[in-house]
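Supplementary Methods, section 5.1.

A reviewer requested that the exact input to the structure prediction be made available. We therefore reproduce it here, unchanged from the version used in the analyses.
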Amino acid sequence: MKNLVIAILLFTLIPSVLAQEVAEAEPLSAVITGPDEVPVGRTIVLDASASHGLGENTQYIWYRGESTVPISRSVEAVFTPDQPGVVIMRLSISTIINGEREAVETSQAITVYDRKIVLIADSSIPLDKLNLHLVAAAEAGVYLRLLQPEKTTIPLGVEESIFAMLSEESATLNGAEAVVLWTEGVKGLQALMRAVEGNPDKYEAIHNQTIILITDRGLGSLARTAGGPFTVIKPHQILVTRKEAVNPLMSAGDMGSFISELTRRDIDFLVVDKSSTGIRPWNVLSSLVNSMLIHGVPSQTVILLLMLPIIATILAFFKQVIGITTFGLYTPSILALSFLALGWELGLMFLLFILVTGYTTRQLMKRWRLLYIPKVAIILTVVSLTLLVLLGLGAYQGITLSGDTIFVLLIMSTLAESFLNVKTEEGWKTALFGIGETVMAALFCVFIVQLAFLQSIILAYPELILITIVINIALGKWTGLRLVEYFRFQEVFKHIQEE
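The structure derived from this sequence is encoded token-by-token as follows.
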């Protein structure tokens, strides 16, 4: 009997002691979990069980706004809004800690709406312009949920930043009447597709809804590229239009009225639906590109692959017609892809570190008298370690690179071998001229292929890449003098004319 009494006392006292220890280790704080936006008439449940530092005899009191009349005295509060607006829910918690009753209060703002529209804009859209649309939406009684990722230093990193943002915003698409994508080309739509794919909640939120693409480029090319993501997301329709359509969207009562308003205001738009996404004999290559996008291949990877023939053709023209002396054709092509993926400023920095590291390593190995192949392997190893350090520093500064970009960067490290070979065989002057012309040719290629309208056209009509074959056949039959040779042999031409 004595043992039973001791066990009962321990069973009674231990929870109290543990509660006091927890309270001492963690300060008292009230935490509300639950949705922060809800349509009119839908019931939501707010929960306070995630609060910290609770002691004994805990009491919960829920209030709505500034009211002093409790709506709940339990750990949960059930709330059904009856009109749109912003509702403040307050939670007061009191508990006994170390024999004294302490209290804490917190609140959460809940947006109640009749109509909800999600606007996803990339960092190139000015924030003041987006704020004007927020004001217009509020005046029209529309809840406009604005999402804009931070500016990225990587030119092809826009899609990744939007995808990461949508992955974190788990419930943003819920209840939306339409999703507006105000981004460059198809990047926003591609990021949305990747976020929706494999996520049942996001898929149900966007399925059979309307997606609106805002662009200042050709509507036809963007509508053609949107066919692939359409088959994955399966919305009711994708509407490609201009930025002037944003305000009419806020004032329209539904999508039918919105389209009628676009027609009345003479605002261009195209509709992508089931009838416009079929495979036809003349768009087989386009269907292949769309299939790649559907199966998760990032759009920046597809763009890099499609731009490589254009880069190679530009370089072939430079070498055959103009007569510049680059390190072959493969090396400047890879260098151009690296600049396109990284940005030319960051790409030049990586290139400088690669060349300095390669040259320094080769100078230090002179005393070892190694054979050529093992020596090159050591140089590439040191260059790779240097890139690893640079990537680590970049990650510390918030600059992250995707896997395909890093792969291109590693291939770019082979440029050190070409530079060192030319320097050893022909001297510093020839090596510096070679690397200079290679970099200038690569930068010119980047200037051409990074044009947004060119990328949109090639992504929409990849069959145009086949034209580069015809151009290269014509260049292969070139038999005239190169442009620089007219200047190099200027004296010879003068003597020929005199004779």
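The first strand starts at residue 37 and ends at 39. These observations are discussed further in the main text.
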